[in-house]
């Protein structure tokens, strides 16, 4: 009798943990889409979505409790860039690399008014990842170090 009770309790615990794990994974699932795909969705509903694009120049507006900005994506063959208005309402501070022309990934939901409400922002500054200049170009700090050594 004690062994049967132990097996039933263990089984109940295992099933509860499995149910919680499946629910947690489904709740935190985020779908990555391009701006084209997001704007083409009929009803994204309350699905968590991750969308990426470039921060439009001059579009960042900081308000109390939120930051509003515009993402845009321009590809060859598109007559006009795709644009998405974003409102960031997350609790975390924005990354240092979040500025005009930065590439940004926004996690959140698309509201019924067409505005994307982001709860998380990741950004990288495109200028940090530019190719190394060719020829005799050298970083400024190399010239300074050379003049100090002389």
List the defining traits of the structure above:
OB fold (Dihydrolipoamide Acetyltransferase, E2P); five-stranded mixed beta barrel; 7 strands; 150 residues; 30% strand; 3 helices; alpha+beta
Q: What is the helix content?
A: 25-40%
CATH topology of the domain at 29-129: OB fold (Dihydrolipoamide Acetyltransferase, E2P)
The largest pleated sheet is described as: 5 strands, mixed, barrel
What's the CATH H-level superfamily name of the domain at 29-129? Nucleic acid-binding proteins
In total, the number of strands is 7
Strand order of the largest sheet: 2-4-5-7-6
User: Helix tally?
Assistant: 3
Radius of gyration: 24 Å
CATH class value of the domain at 29-129: Mainly Beta
Mean pLDDT: 78
The geometry reads as elongated
Provide the β-strand percentage band: 25-35%
Order of H and E elements? HEHEEEEEEH
Q: Which secondary-structure class do the elements indicate?
A: alpha+beta
The appropriate CATH architecture of the domain at 29-129 is Beta Barrel
C-alpha termini separation? 90 Å
């Amino acid at each position: 009798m004690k062994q049967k009770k132990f097996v039933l309790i263990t089984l109940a615990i295992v099933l509860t943990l499995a149910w919680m794990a499946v629910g947690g994974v489904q709740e935190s699932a985020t779908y990555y889409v391009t701006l084209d795909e997001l704007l083409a969705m009929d009803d994204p509903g309350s699905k968590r979505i991750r969308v990426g694009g470039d921060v439009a120049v001059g579009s960042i507006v900081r308000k109390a409790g939120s930051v509003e900005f515009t993402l845009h994506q321009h590809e060859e063959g598109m007559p006009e860039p795709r644009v998405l208005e974003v409102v960031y309402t997350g609790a975390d501070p924005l990354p240092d690399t979040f500025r005009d022309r930065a590439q940004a990934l926004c996690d959140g939901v698309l509201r019924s008014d067409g505005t994307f409400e982001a709860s998380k922002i990741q950004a990288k500054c495109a200028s940090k990842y530019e190719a190394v200049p060719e020829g005799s170009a050298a970083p400024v700090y190399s010239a300074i170090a050379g003049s100090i050594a002389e």
